[in-house]
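The following record pairs a protein chain with its ligand, 2-acetamido-2-deoxy-beta-D-glucopyranose.
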Amino acid sequence: MAGRGRMVPCACLGLFGVLCWVWVSFASFPDDQLPLEALDAVDRAAFQPQSALSEMEFSSISSYRGPGNRDRRINKELPILLWWSGGLFPHFPGDSERIDCATSSCLVTSNRKVQMYKRTASIIFYGTDFRAYEAPLPRLRHQTWALFHEESPMNNYFLSHGPGIRLFNYTATFRRESDYPLTLQWLPSLDYLLQPVAVPLGEKNRLRREGLAPVLYMQSHCDVPSDRNRYVQELMKYIQVDSYGKCLNNKPLPENLEDTATATGEESSFMNFVARYKFHLALENGLCPDYMTEKLWRPLHQGCVPVYRGSSSVADWMPNDHSVIIIDHFPSPKSLAEFLKRLDENDDEYARYLEFKKPSRITNTRLLEALETREWGVNDMSKPNYLNGFECYVCDKENARLAAERTYRKAPNKNQPPKPKMANNSHMGCPLPGPGYGHVTDLPADDGWLQIWPQDYWQSLDQAEGLESLIRHNESDPSLLWKHIQNMAVSRARGKH
Ligand SMILES: *[C@@H]1O[C@H](CO)[C@@H](O)[C@H](O)[C@H]1NC(C)=O
Ligand SMILES: *[C@@H]1O[C@H](CO)[C@@H](O)[C@H](O)[C@H]1NC(C)=O
Ligand SMILES: *[C@@H]1O[C@H](CO)[C@@H](O)[C@H](O)[C@H]1NC(C)=O
């Protein structure tokens, strides 16, 4: 898939942080190696020929046992959570670990041999890597699926369709409606927003007189579903934009910066370079409610004004109601350009956008509360990262569900069975990509964007329906996906669907 390969470095950066955290927590606790546990007979019974867990090593980091956790079961009695995307398994060394969470404990592993075990209560997937034709089938009735997807909607539109997302029982996504929301994952802290303006307005005006453009564009990932280039290209007709990335490039990057231009990191010479601009074009690669990245938070941090398109509900998370310029509030690139030019010439009006640098002017209680109450940290060694946070969320939920099922089985007349729990479109539900500027019907048939993204979106729907069909038919071979998709197309053509 075009573009997906290029997401990997970002994922790796994030992972690096995670690994650092895990390493630190690992280093700071005694490595009390647990004895190897053999599987109990029940686990071995159903599908698998051999005991897999007996070969696994259990190194334990009892790092986040909550005060409410009175779970004293030994490892072989604990439910298992399987990380299907092994690359993301947030523990090392080894591929298995006991986790002690807020209210209960689980065994987590990335060893797929446990897929069919009765004791395997949940499978955790990484959204970017999830492929319908590789899904673990047959889907066992007693197992839940958990989805972790903090990355761009463009990485997997499968998850944006009802039939796709409903296959998951628990989610951690950028949407506030998800079970374990990661909405502010790119905002490290309130202090990050409150950092003083990096380049004072007087200096910015001086640079303007020397010919620096008012607006910065810095993007090297050009073929993306939000089709941002098409908008920026039109905008450039009406206002001066300095573009240093590979997309719509009109200026060379200074040599010392070349390596950092595409990095998401915050290397200081790069930061100083971009901070000189009054406005930063901040257009996400994919559009979805609550999908916001460093493109938005970094200019706020530096005291530049973001000119933003991405999450349609971005205003809900801004420090106050006058700190970001929202592209979709303007009828055309031309009217946006005129607005930016007026601000460029009016220091008082421009400065109003930076008033949030005074703590008293951060008035958005939703933002303040979300930062205050989230349990995970960003580059914060004193808090768990969200991968470990989410697996603990799943662990506690699964133990509660298993306990409720036991209670129900003991006395079905007196108790209710636990209610099924599944995700829905509000946990992801990103819209069909549209052109960045103009109407889709006006695009020539050979338009590059048109040939990729709308198709990718609808093919993902086919795959979601195909996988749902595989599961409904209790198939055990996920490569039958294509056959099921074809059958669905045929019955649709016959008017049966
Ligand atoms: C998990 O989701 C599946 C598919 O949507 C559903 O059939 C099942 O009942 C759910 N399981 C639980 C325990 O809620
Ligand atoms: C979708 O899920 C959320 C909880 O995650 C729930 O509040 C909402 O009612 C659900 N919507 C529909 C249409 O079922
Ligand atoms: C689904 O298939 C598995 C083996 O592939 C089988 O053991 C199980 O009984 C089947 N379940 C149903 C409900 O047919």
